[in-house]
Fold:
Amino acid sequence: MLMLNLMGAPEGGTANPAATMMMMFGFIAIFYFIFFRPQRKQQKEHQEMVKNLKRGDKVSTIGGIVGE
Structure:
């Protein structure tokens, strides 16, 4: 996809807007799968863990505080 944009427009014509749109949607998809999807998965795991906490469970925070 990047090669389409690097090649530039043909002489006497304009760049193909479909190729530009495809490349933009490709970058958006890559960005989604790299950043947003793992974050949502981590949020779901955290919510599940918090939901399953019961009184008397040992908890350790990132800062090192331990509680029951």
Remarks:
- Helices lie at 2-7, 17-51.
- Residues 43 and 53 are 16 Å apart (CA to CA).
